[in-house]
């Protein structure tokens, strides 16, 4: 059985490789981490292309939801993205928080941090920064963030409850998070659970849905809400790497479910809720879209 340190190194090695891969390769595999299938399956990811603030060069096709869509980000907010990769969710969040806000991406893979910083420099965003570090021990002070987002990352961390407690620590009183992640209902076959590479592929590292939600409750969060849920189907040509034909039949016809969920929760405290202000309501005719590079 691999230790937490071993599993983290597997993930770091895999995502260092992914940082240099083409998006099409990542999208055709399980969270980009396994050998691509012989057909193109968009197993996890949702389409960002119509999302305001989207930056194609920063989209590695690794997500399992659109947490920024549900995150209720206001102009001027400080937003933290956990497992920020090449920066796509940070740039979408920056569109909402605007020039008066701040966005911090945290990732423990140096190659991802490097790519994200290159992307931010190209865009001329001086209020988006990327910090190298573990999301279960964030390089962030207490009570800093108004909003935290994350996209298909917590399932890669061995100690998920530690991450959730870190989220509670760095959120301001009254702050909230919106996180997309992979969860399970039922027990995975042993071959999937024990393979380290499948852990890096998001599924083997997922925990039970009820356990996931309970960890959020135990950390002290209020108003826990599932904002979106979808079923994830793993193609048989991926399953065949880990399971026999009989095991695949049992798995496909059994009661185990793999889901992408987007969860919202609030840290208690803070002043009366401030009005929701979108950047689109503040933009004047003199300000162009961020994609053009002049804002």
General description of the model:
- By secondary structure, the protein is α/β, with parallel strands linked by helices.
- It has a single domain (4-267), classed as Rossmann fold (3-Layer(aba) Sandwich), CATH 3.40.50.150.
- 31% of the residues lie in helices and 20% in strands.
- The chain has eleven helices and eight strands.
- Strands 1, 2, 3, 4, 5, 6, 7 and 8 form an eight-stranded mixed beta sheet that branches.
- The chain is globular, with a radius of gyration of 19 Å.
- Mean pLDDT is 81; it is low at 25-42 and 272-295.
Short key terms for the protein model shown above:
295 residues; alpha/beta; Rossmann fold; 8-stranded mixed beta sheet; globular; disordered C terminus
The total of helices stands at 11
What is the count of β-strands?
8
- What CATH architecture label applies? 3-Layer(aba) Sandwich
Helix content: 25-40%
Q: What distance separates the N and C termini?
A: 50 Å
- Domain count: the total is 1
CATH topology: Rossmann fold
CATH class: Alpha Beta
What is the averaged pLDDT score?
Answer: 81
The dominant shape is globular
Rg result: 19 Å
CATH superfamily: Vaccinia Virus protein VP39
Order of helices and strands: HHHEHEHEEHEHHEHEHHE
Main beta sheet: strand number and arrangement? 8 strands, mixed
Query: Which class of secondary structure composition applies to the elements?
Result: alpha/beta
Task: Point out poorly predicted stretches.
Answer: 25-42, 272-295
Beta-strand proportion: 15-25%
């Amino acid at each position: 059985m691999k230790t937490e340190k071993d599993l983290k190194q597997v993930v770091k090695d895999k995502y260092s490789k992914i940082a240099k891969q083409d998006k099409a390769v990542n999208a055709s595999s399980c969270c980009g981490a396994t050998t691509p299938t012989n057909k193109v399956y968009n197993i996890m990811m949702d389409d960002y292309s119509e999302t305001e603030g989207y930056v194609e060069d920063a989209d590695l096709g690794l997500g399992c939801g659109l947490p920024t869509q549900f995150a209720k980000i206001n102009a001027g907010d400080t937003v933290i993205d956990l497992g920020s990769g090449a920066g796509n969710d940070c740039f979408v969040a920056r569109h909402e928080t605007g020039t008066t806000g701040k966005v911090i991406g945290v990732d423990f893979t140096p190659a991802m941090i490097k790519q994200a910083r290159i992307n931010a420099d190209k865009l001329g965003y001086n209020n988006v920064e990327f910090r190298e570090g573990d999301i279960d021990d964030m390089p962030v002070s207490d009570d800093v963030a108004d909003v935290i987002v994350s996209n298909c990352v917590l399932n890669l961390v061995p100690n998920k409850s530690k991450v959730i407690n870190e989220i509670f620590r760095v959120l301001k009183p009254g702050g909230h998070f919106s996180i997309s992640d992979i969860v399970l209902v039922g027990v995975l076959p042993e071959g999937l659970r024990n393979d380290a590479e499948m852990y890096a592929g998001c599924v083997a590292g997922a925990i039970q849905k009820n356990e996931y939600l309970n960890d959020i409750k135990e950390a002290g969060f209020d108003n826990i809400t599932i904002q979106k849920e979808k079923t994830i189907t793993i193609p048989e040509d991926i399953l065949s790497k880990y399971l026999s034909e009989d095991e695949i039949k049992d798995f496909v016809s059994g009661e185990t479910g793999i889901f992408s969920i987007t969860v919202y929760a609030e840290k208690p405290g803070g002043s009366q809720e401030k009005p929701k202000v979108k950047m689109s309501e503040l933009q004047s005719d003199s300000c162009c879209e961020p994609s053009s590079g002049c804002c």
